[in-house]
């Protein structure tokens, strides 16, 4: 298992390096990053979400509500901690929102699904996609507020309910609930567009890193403290709590692995879109992705 996870991470890092080199060679630039970020957020990622349920075998619809309940409870725990913990970390006050984002949101869509499949088998991806629904909802509803710096004055904007990522989530749940099977040309179209998400996002991350001095990519004490919380401590606490209240062992294990993922790539995409926090977010994304090669097998050993 450890070798499989390490191989997956090596492949992802290779694409990040390609983005880094392309930027250094002048083949892609900041404007390219912004346009590609918009494409990923508004087109390819929604297609990825929908294509995840356009399969021959659909999950048991009766499990959807219990799984969503568990995942919302998990993210409530993450969000509460994301407001509290950054205040006690050695970071700048104006960076607290970025660290709140990094503590709360993991790279489930880009990295989590392949890792879950490698540990639990392909069937477990169905459960992972349902458990990831609050991530999809909250990364647009709350994650952007963390990035923009307005997280202390949370005001729910109804418009976020109609963003492409959430519309895709609604469609995927409808497909599962009504046991719908889409024609092959439709499913293959969504799959091909969705498959563009991972390489595009990783190229953007690598390109963003190219603008940051190498010494600064090593991060700060605050970044490493955040990495320890995100990758090890919080997932193990959630796993223990799930076992304590008698959650199905398989479901609680998949849930723990999902939230043990490195910082979500959406953090870098949002920072580029809003023009702030790119450096600290790139540091957190880079360091947690690197360390996750070691920490994910550690978390897996507890399940």
Topology of this protein?
Elements lengths: L1 H23 L5 H22 L12 H21 L11 H9 L3 H13 L3 H8 L1 H16 L15 H14 L6 H12 L1 H13 L11 H24 L4 H11 L6 H9 L3 H24 L2
Structural class: mainly alpha
What is the beta-strand fraction?
under 5%
> Largest sheet at a glance?
none
**Quaternary structure:** single chain
Which residues sit in consecutive blocks of at least 5 with pLDDT less than 50? none
Summarize the structure in words:
Helix content is 72%, strand content 0%. It contains 14 helices and no strands. The radius of gyration is 18 Å and the shape is globular.
Short description:
This protein is mainly α and 303 residues long.
Features:
303 residues; mainly alpha; 14 helices; 0% strand; globular
């Amino acid at each position: 298992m450890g070798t499989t996870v390490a191989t997956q991470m090596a492949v992802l890092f290779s694409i990040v390096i390609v983005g880094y080199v392309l930027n250094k060679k002048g083949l892609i630039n900041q404007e390219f990053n912004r346009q590609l970020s918009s494409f990923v957020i508004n087109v390819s990622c929604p297609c990825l979400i929908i294509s995840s349920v356009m399969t021959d075998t659909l999950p048991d619809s009766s499990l959807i509500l219990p799984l969503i309940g568990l995942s919302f409870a998990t993210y409530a725990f993450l969000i509460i901690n994301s407001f509290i913990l950054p205040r006690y970390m050695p970071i700048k006050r104006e960076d607290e929102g970025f660290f709140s984002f990094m503590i709360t949101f993991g790279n489930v869509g880009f990295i989590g699904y392949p890792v879950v499949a490698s540990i639990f088998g392909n069937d477990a991806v169905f459960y992972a996609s349902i458990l990831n629904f609050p991530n999809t909802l909250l990364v647009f509803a709350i994650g952007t507020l963390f990035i923009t710096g307005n997280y202390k004055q949370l005001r729910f904007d109804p418009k976020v309910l109609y963003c492409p990522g959430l519309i895709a989530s609604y469609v995927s749940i409808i497909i599962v609930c009504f046991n719908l099977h889409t024609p092959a040309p439709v499913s293959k179209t969504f799959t091909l567009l969705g498959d563009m998400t991972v390489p595009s996002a990783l190229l953007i991350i690598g390109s963003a890193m190219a603008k940051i001095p190498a010494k600064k990519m090593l991060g700060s004490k605050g970044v490493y403290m955040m990495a320890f919380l995100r990758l090890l401590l919080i997932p193990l606490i959630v796993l223990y709590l799930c076992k304590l209240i008698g959650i199905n062992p398989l479901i609680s294990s998949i849930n723990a692995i999902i939230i043990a993922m490195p910082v979500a790539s959406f953090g870098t995409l949002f920072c580029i879109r809003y023009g702030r926090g790119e450096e600290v977010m790139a540091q957190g994304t880079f360091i947690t992705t690197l360390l996750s090669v070691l920490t994910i097998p550690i978390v897996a050993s507890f399940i």
